[in-house]
Amino acid sequence: MKKALINAKIFTGTETITDKALLIKDKKIERIIDPGSIPIDYEIIDCDGNYLSPGFIDLQIAGGGGYLFSANTSAEALRAITESIVRTGTTGFLIVIPTNSSEVYNYAIRAVIENPHPALLGLHFEGPYISPLRRGAHIKGYIKSPQEGDIEALIAEADGVVKMLTVAPEVCYYEMIKLLNDNGIVVAAGHSNSTFKEAVQGFKWGIKTTTHLFNAMSHMHHRDPGLPGAAFETGNIFASIIADGIHVDFNMISIAKKLMKERLFLVTDAVEENKNGAYQHVKQKDRFTLPDGTLSGSRLTMIKAVRNCVENVGIPLEEAIRMASTYQAKVMNISDRGRIAPGYKADLVVFDKDYNIEHVLIEGIQV
Which residues are annotated as catalytic? Predict the structure, then answer.
């Protein structure tokens, strides 16, 4: 498989290149060359002057394509969700299971193991070790405190497919976080009522990022800056944020960006309409809610989040793309995604000036 993408504004993750061709060979990016030097055996894809960037990476998405994964952990649902997601330009994602029963966690693990896809990076368990006071739309009855042996059991059952765990720092302990990190699971702070001191302690123990900054966490206050303040002040900590203007005001995103710079990245926290089971989401015009009206998820795609960052927050397009791709790869320690460079996966998205998706490629194959 050999392809050449021509006539594009190529954003590599570090610079924008024009009047060049991007070559793909054997599922990977080969090199960037002059269009006149393309070998004759390469299939040509004309990008029509549009933007060409690394494919987006979403570390928190719960459903799509008509399915909420936690309510239907079948192969059929996983395929439909994946197909729906990749059509929007997201070429790598973690699928989220909110605080739930052990049976649902186990079913989700089996489904991901048995139905691999190059865009499916693994599972993100959002809970169950969270604060009942900051549970948001999560079900209180499933929340628990970590007990001795719980993490060992999770790691054994997960078989390497659980890649991220959201916890409340105030309910954790050092050995728990170390064990997760030692087994390749990124630990995120979220759904937490932690004080500034408790959050900083969690970061020192090995928590690497936060889950949907500002949402379902202790508030910033002049007497205790809480979890958001701890993320701002701890220089090596990342934070995800939902840029729909509903979960977080655009002005607050601007403030967070100025403080965190390259440590702030985008997630969609998108769910899907669901009328059965533990988590029921009602589709509204611009969001999802629980039946009682509680905000429960977004209707975002990554390309919409990028557009919002540019048009409503004033972030340059190149930086908004990094927030949708490059920084997630850093958080997850992924060395071959999030940039356009030789040897990286040919996971790419082409979009026009109005943020319409024109082409999506995963490992060089158009989807």
Answer: 269
